[in-house]
Amino acid sequence: MIYAQSIVQHSWTPLLQHSPPYPRKRDKAAMSKIKELTLTSVPPKLPCGVTHTSLALVFSIGGYIGNFFHQFMDVLIPLFITVNSFFPKNQDSILVVSDYQDWWTPKYKDLLPHFTNHLIINMDNETITHCFPSVIVGLVSHNYMIMNSTLLPHLKTLVDFHYFLHNAYHQDHDDRDSIIMNTRPRLVLVNRKDKVGRVILNLKEVKSTAYKVRFDVTIFEPNKNTSLTKSYRLIHGSHVMLGVHGATLTHFLFLRPWCVLIQVVPIKTQWVSDQYFREPIRVLGLEYMEYKVRSEESSLVKKYGVNHLTLRDPVAFHGRNWSNMRVYMKEQNIKLDMVRFKRYMKDAYNKAKRFMDNNES
What is the pTM of this model? Predict the structure, then answer.
């Protein structure tokens, strides 16, 4: 139990309020995975087991946290917004986490100390009463991967969050340590594994074509246990990142300004592709390229036929039933047209070389 002293001191009438400390309040599926907290002004019978002088910030890491994109959109960016909204500069806070995941703290061990000087409190395992001078419950979220500077007291934007990540993960390494010192720009090719959907079926051809265009190609297949410091050094030292729309593209946050992100947009994923990646990528000053999948490049043609409603009129097929999106998100794989793809590679190469000539020569 966590007990905020100020509630008792300033509340004459007992209050009772229930609050799930997670941003996606309207998402029933996400909320079903979140423990609701009870806020009350009635003092506990037990005395304080631990008395803190710093304020507490309570939030959940449940919901969709297993997805890398949602780790940033639902937790880390809202956490950055909340800290910069409610805590004056140099005022420390203690992070109190519910719906705790054992892998979360180790994964973000290099980033979390930049939010707080204290150990994370796992609310689910606490058996003693903690007392704080003040408590904030929940995180502030503005929109998909976006920060609205007009709603923040210090005019912070996603560019500031990008720099925040750089401070955490760049550490003491010289940029030259992570950048390939040769004439070929590095292209990171994001590979989605089988059975997750939106897989590039002709990956070997894609890699070969990129190499022939004179890219140094690295296949990127991160998992839950992949070191973010190592991922940062790989992505930060690269010039182009290419992948089908999906959570792993969130690593664009590790790219340097003016580097290139190529998003392969499968059929009927234009809206989420724009909202989740296109808009924030432009905010960061990255070069954005979009490869829109044509019907003949989609595995849905073979499965349903070119005249099926899924391809002929995706809007009508989807309707307002989000579950129908599974066809496009989970069942659809991609076989890129190599003639068309090569043109994109040449364009990306020219952008990458221009970046290298201006910044690495």
Answer: 0.90
